[in-house]
Write a structure and sequence with these properties.
Number of domains: 2
Largest sheet: 3 strands, antiparallel
CATH topology of the largest domain: Four Helix Bundle (Hemerythrin (Met), subunit A)
Distance between the termini: 38 Å
Number of helices: 10
Order of helices and strands: HEHHEEHHHHHHH
CATH architecture of the largest domain: Up-down Bundle
Number of strands: 3
Strand content: under 5%
Radius of gyration: 18 Å
CATH superfamily of the largest domain: GntR ligand-binding domain-like
Length: about 220
């Protein structure tokens, strides 16, 4: 098995993301590309690329004058996003399970196995795999307006998923998503809806304590 070393950009990205999540870089703090490059002892290229990713993830925002700063997020923002996401994905799960076939079940199991294979990695590495389960359920529901609303929330959903997973182990994430998938596999509408809502609000409980000062 070949283990690839993270690129310089990814190393800088992971360090900056962790500093933002842990509050070492404060909400509203202006990010200066040249200063970061100097602190890391690298050229501005990989720093620039890392900042673009953080902006796309929602951790950074850009002012009208072009300056970049750490996004300000309140606890109220987080609750509103998670509670809305819980309602939208709960509805989607309720509809989706009535349309599941054997291939869909196999795909959900594959998603779980993909998470399991990351058991020795940092929790953040599992975010794309966990998000895929939610994306699949949303798509399977075939509810256009719910899906559009979910897509509009997606930037914040991914950002908070990264926060949540930075404080969770892959093994714990695997268990939580296994419980969710097992509920979906029952194809029972009320069980699936409640399991999805409980799963999402459980993630909110993990993220919430870290929002007070850090985002």
């Amino acid at each position: 098995m070949i283990i690839e070393r993270p690129s310089l950009k990814d190393q800088i990205l992971n360090i900056l993301r962790k500093k933002i999540i842990m509050g070492d870089i404060k909400p509203g703090e202006v990010i200066v590309e040249s200063e970061i490059a100097r602190n890391f002892g690298v050229s501005r290229g990989p720093v620039h690329d890392a900042l673009i990713v953080l902006e796309n993830e929602g951790f950074l925002s850009r002012a009208e004058n072009g300056s970049i700063f750490v996004t300000k997020i309140t606890k109220e923002d987080v609750f509103e996003i998670y509670s809305l996401r819980s309602a939208v994905e709960g509805l989607a799960a309720k509809i989706a399970v009535t349309r599941f076939n054997d291939e869909d079940i196999k795909y959900l199991d594959k998603c779980l196995m993909d998470i399991a294979e990351l058991k020795n990695d940092d929790g953040v590495t599992a975010v794309p795999n966990t998000m895929e389960i939610h994306r699949f359920v949303m798509g399977k529901a075939q509810h256009k307006r719910a899906y559009e609303l979910w897509k509009n929330l997606n930037l914040h959903i991914k950002m908070f998923a990264l926060v949540s997973m930075s404080h969770d182990r892959v093994e714990d994430t695997f268990v939580k998503h296994s419980e969710l998938v097992e509920a979906l596999k029952t194809k029972n509408e009320s069980i699936a809806e409640q399991a999805m809502k409980t799963h999402i609000m459980g993630a909110w409980e993990i993220v919430n304590p870290y929002i007070k000062e850090n985002l």
